[in-house]
Amino acid sequence: MSSIETSPLTRKLRAFVAFSGPELAVLDRLHRRKRAFVPGRDLVQQGQSEQAAYILAEGWVCSYKVQPDGTRQIVDFQIPGDFLGLRSILLHTSDHSVEPIVSIQAAEVLIEDLLEAFSDTPRLAMAILWMASRDEAMVVEHLVGIGRRDAEQRMAHFLLELGARLTLVGMGSRAGYDCPLTQYHLADALGLSAVHVNRVLRKLREDGLVTFRDGRVTFLDHDRLVGLAQFDPAYLEHTGPLLK
Amino acid sequence: MSSIETSPLTRKLRAFVAFSGPELAVLDRLHRRKRAFVPGRDLVQQGQSEQAAYILAEGWVCSYKVQPDGTRQIVDFQIPGDFLGLRSILLHTSDHSVEPIVSIQAAEVLIEDLLEAFSDTPRLAMAILWMASRDEAMVVEHLVGIGRRDAEQRMAHFLLELGARLTLVGMGSRAGYDCPLTQYHLADALGLSAVHVNRVLRKLREDGLVTFRDGRVTFLDHDRLVGLAQFDPAYLEHTGPLLK
DNA sequence: CGACCTATTGAATTCTATCAATTCTCGTGG
DNA sequence: CCACGAGAATTGATAGAATTCAATAGGTCG
């Protein structure tokens, strides 16, 4: 049995699609070009063309856009098993940057690899397309959060969503999860100032809902937090692609 | 020559991909199930499963999500040539609603139609996937706008983006465009209150930048507006899918 | 130890929402 | 023809939310 069967991506997709041996082999091939990255050096640069995509094997990264005036907006965080830069290779140019938050391991995927994989196994293509749609649904939910929730709800919703995603890949539970993000990351993701992030976290802590401390998110009262955030995980719990 | 060759979708895709006769015929088949809708009755309902997708032939619609507390966030507006609900059929359930803003014409596309079209003409599949990526890039830009721009910049950027999109399908120019949206639509899209939308529009008008009046957006000083919004249309001007 | 990053808190300011009231347009029915 | 009501746009006043500026403290690393 090859080690690929336990990769986070494979693990995630297999929750929805039963792959055949040859399909697993194709997945294996996609993982062959392993590379390591450290914080401070971007995997993908906004505005660059000829980008590769990556499958994140270990660690956390964030996708963000910077504006001409220097402010930045984090669009999404990716965790092990997530695909990075799929849109970049489709559009042949990257509209965003990708930055490692901790030291990471990622498999580089060239456009040729992907086209080859897609033509070999249409089922895999469909599974990846489905995954991309799920990611887009997450971005949409993020948009709603920033547009129509106040800072406290935004934070609560964000911490809960991250928890739900991490739980899917075995890195979290209802009790909490390890989280390498700084308050500056939260600020850039939620469209708040770092100062206000700090105040909101204090309020949530003082209200006995959740703590964010020493790289760990701890849910003190999960149910009440869900109530505050009006968190509905439906958009994360899809029934999988239409593969028999 | 069939009339399909002048449909907005065909027109848009042909700007990037040269289709063969059989491929045009497949596009034609996708348009066969024409339907009409009127404002007030949603095409797609949030939470519903077994949805169809649509190709918008005429008129404007918006995609939105409503939250438990009743507030709504418009995620995107669609104009002729845009695809609606592609994600809904992929995920097999809809995470958002779609509402006609004016009376519209749309071609219903069943999941079977799409799978058939994809297997018949991979190039068309790639073109549609590319288009979906472009739409996602737009949602991302929208996210950045709400997260990191103040109300005035948000409005300016939004009006410019809409103008750029409409120009692509021949419905607008640097001078302006017809626009059936109300200030309430703008508010729900930009994450502002309707009252504040009104104030912002007044300011932009008084500053001689743009007017929003009687269903028409008129750019008074396009260049200065671009400067205010820090509008960079790069994310709309892609080189097309990787088809030879 | 000092440099640097992160977290924390206070005070003043700016931005945006909410509440309330008015005007305008347009279509409907009397 | 006009009164009426609905939806849309407009404006003022006030309250609330979040930002900015400024300062301090804790931790880590060389």
Automatic annotation (TrEMBL), chains A, B:
GO CC, alphabetical: cytosol
InterPro entries reported in the protein's UniProt record: cNMP-bd_dom, cNMP-bd_dom_sf, Env_Response_Regulators, HTH_CRP, RmlC-like_jellyroll, WH-like_DNA-bd_sf, WH_DNA-bd_sf
Pfam name, any one: HTH_Crp_2
Domain of life per record: Bacteria
Name of the protein: Crp/Fnr family transcriptional regulator
Coiled-coil region: none
Cross-referenced SMART domains: cNMP, HTH_CRP
Keywords annotated in UniProt: DNA-binding, Transcription, Transcription regulation
GO molecular function: DNA binding; DNA-binding transcription factor activity
Record has DNA-binding as a keyword: yes
